[in-house]
């Protein structure tokens, strides 16, 4: 189901069919052979929207921040430096509201229904006006979100170069990509995977796409580069050589590391785990699987993880579990901030509005000492039924305020100290001579048997779960 959805969302095909009756268009298609129209745009893209300001928790103005106060210092750092927010170009500027059962619902005034180069440039102008009005300095993109595919790889690269040159100019000195990535899942050539495709030609094509996407990310001053293995997995093991595919994935990622070093790109490489969708089984299932894969293939020092909350719940974990798994392995690099719906089983990519969830997320981020050079990318989209331009702003403001409340709450928990004290006490039996020997790996079974005989039946204290939950709740 998600495969079809992604096709609709990313291709722009659906937007053409739905908008065609009302707008002068040239056909949107994967070959991108239409460059008609102009990228010029009279006036502002968001004339009704002011620059978004902090007005405090009592404000009733939906176009203001109630909790996110960029320069306010919390736990020794400005909020903007803890958060490092980013917007996702694909959802915000390529999402049409189409789903497998219905046509697009969003008809942004600047869209002409085409997938032309001129339209790509106009969209880029809208992106930077949006970022500036929202007060966010980072953005994330796939190569094919921002520029149309050409008839050949060389033509696609030339299209990308043209849009990237404009993006570089519009970024100014302050705005940078949080991360770039290569879109290796939409085009039919990637139906068996990219790095794990059974076709060597596809492996090579994907490598060429990553090479170029990494170069443009570097050129734009991007701080990270993401690998989400959308089709790196299988539909059935009956036709799949899993070992060979995983070996290929590792050689592909090693080649990406080598290329990064060759071109002098200092950004962090990030693997984004997800258990399935569009494949039945995606190889980077969750944080622990990805950590094991990196270790097995000697790639641990070269990659970190981009944890997406809705992917965490799809894999049967909480976002907090995935963040902590990444963190304790030294792999927490970035967060794709979104959430799923407890009644829906798939990747709904909603904006996070649950304050308890945001507090748990910020607990991990603060324990990690922040995310830099990573940040929070809003890999989230408006609901199909939200169709006003102002909804784009409201959704991001709400997501930013929710995480800001999480940060405030963690500051309260740290100041109060009782949760940390509860955890400290829980393990205090190891703060002893014998505990130190065990933790240093110096207590053999002989010694432990001797101690067990000497001590007799051990005392076992309460875990105080309800107390821990009470303390947590009182900070919300
Ligand atoms: C898909 C997803 C992607 C990655 C980038 O579920 O999250 O958009 O973040 O390819
Ligand atoms: Co994501």
TrEMBL record:
<dbReference type="InterPro" id="IPR036237">
    <property type="entry name" value="Xyl_isomerase-like_sf"/>
</dbReference>
<protein>
    <recommendedName>
        <fullName>Xylose isomerase</fullName>
        <ecNumber>5.3.1.5</ecNumber>
    </recommendedName>
</protein>
<dbReference type="InterPro" id="IPR001998">
    <property type="entry name" value="Xylose_isomerase"/>
</dbReference>
<dbReference type="InterPro" id="IPR013452">
    <property type="entry name" value="Xylose_isom_bac"/>
</dbReference>
<feature type="signal peptide">
    <location>
        <begin position="1"/>
        <end position="22"/>
    </location>
</feature>
<keyword id="KW-0732">Signal</keyword>
<keyword id="KW-0859">Xylose metabolism</keyword>
<keyword id="KW-0413">Isomerase</keyword>
<dbReference type="GO" id="GO:0042732">
    <property type="term" value="P:D-xylose metabolic process"/>
</dbReference>
<keyword id="KW-0119">Carbohydrate metabolism</keyword>
<dbReference type="GO" id="GO:0009045">
    <property type="term" value="F:xylose isomerase activity"/>
</dbReference>
<comment type="similarity">
    <text>Belongs to the xylose isomerase family.</text>
</comment>
<dbReference type="GO" id="GO:0046872">
    <property type="term" value="F:metal ion binding"/>
</dbReference>
<keyword id="KW-0479">Metal-binding</keyword>
